[in-house]
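To illustrate the input format used throughout this study, we show a single complete record. The first block contains the structure-token representation of the backbone; no residue identities are included at this stage. The design step must infer an amino acid for every position from geometry alone.
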């Protein structure tokens, strides 16, 4: 009997030790899995690296590329800061000699006045986009919703337009605080004055002026579209010419400049200058 009791006691102790051992193993496995999961998580979600600082003096093209990227990414504040930094540097060179060559083999237009004009154009584009707020701007969102309805053939109600109008009124006050349209226009005018052969600021300025309710200002927009087209024709930039023609036809289908541009473009294609 005693032997039986003793044997049972030994069996119970062994089983108890076995259970504890298994529990310890399970706990250890769980901890190892947790550590492994944390490691994988760290590998999958690396820390976002800050933008690499580029020296405008050494790599002007890459630097301007960063400004343009900021424009497309709607990182407008950064883009404006970068453009101001570059303009401050190029102004020193420009004031000494507007025709000074900037040594960078990747530059197509490598004279100081040409680069200055490009930078002011980029800065103007950033200011103009600032006036549109951001991708999440309620006015843009509401307008896009109406456009989507029209594309799908759905009915656009009076309430849709009422909502859009209300959101425009709410956002107009913030635009008036800083005349970003005026800032953009000024940058494009500087760009045109600096390099009269640059078609881009003419086009960008026309994009601002065409939104005016004043007919005289709209006519100015047509004139700048025409100037941009003439310079684009000289460069043989057919893509820009077609873009300008589309913008003109949208602004004023009866514009005298449409036939002029088409005639000039046709003449260049036929080898007549």
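Output of the design step:
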């Amino acid at each position: 009997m005693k032997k039986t009791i003793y044997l049972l006691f030994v069996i119970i102790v062994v089983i108890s030790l076995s259970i504890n051992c298994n529990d310890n193993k399970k706990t250890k496995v769980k901890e190892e899995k947790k550590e492994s999961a944390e490691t994988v998580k760290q590998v999958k979600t690396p820390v976002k690296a800050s933008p690499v600082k580029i020296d405008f003096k050494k790599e002007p093209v890459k630097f301007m590329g960063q400004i343009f990227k900021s424009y497309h990414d709607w990182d407008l504040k950064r883009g404006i800061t970068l453009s101001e930094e570059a303009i401050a540097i190029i102004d020193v060179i420009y004031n000494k000699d507007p025709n000074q060559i900037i040594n960078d083999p990747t530059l197509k237009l490598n004279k100081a006045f040409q680069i200055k004009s490009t930078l002011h154009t980029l800065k103007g584009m950033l200011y103009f986009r600032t006036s549109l707020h951001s991708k999440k701007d309620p006015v843009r969102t509401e307008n896009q919703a109406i456009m989507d309805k029209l594309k799908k053939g759905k009915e656009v109600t009076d309430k849709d337009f009422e909502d859009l109008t209300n959101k425009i009124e709410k956002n107009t006050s913030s635009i008036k605080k800083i005349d970003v349209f005026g800032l953009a226009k000024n940058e494009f005018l500087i760009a045109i004055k600096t390099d009269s052969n640059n078609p881009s600021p003419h086009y960008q300025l026309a994009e601002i002026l065409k939104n005016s309710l004043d007919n005289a200002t709209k006519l100015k927009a047509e004139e700048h579209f025409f100037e941009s087209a003439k310079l684009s024709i000289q460069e043989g930039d057919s893509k820009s010419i077609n873009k300008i023609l589309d913008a003109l036809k949208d602004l004023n289908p009866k514009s005298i400049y449409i036939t002029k541009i088409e005639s000039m473009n046709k003449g260049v294609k036929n080898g007549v200058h």
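Structural context for interpreting the output: The CA atoms of residues 76 and 126 lie 6 Å apart. The two ends are 123 Å apart (CA to CA).
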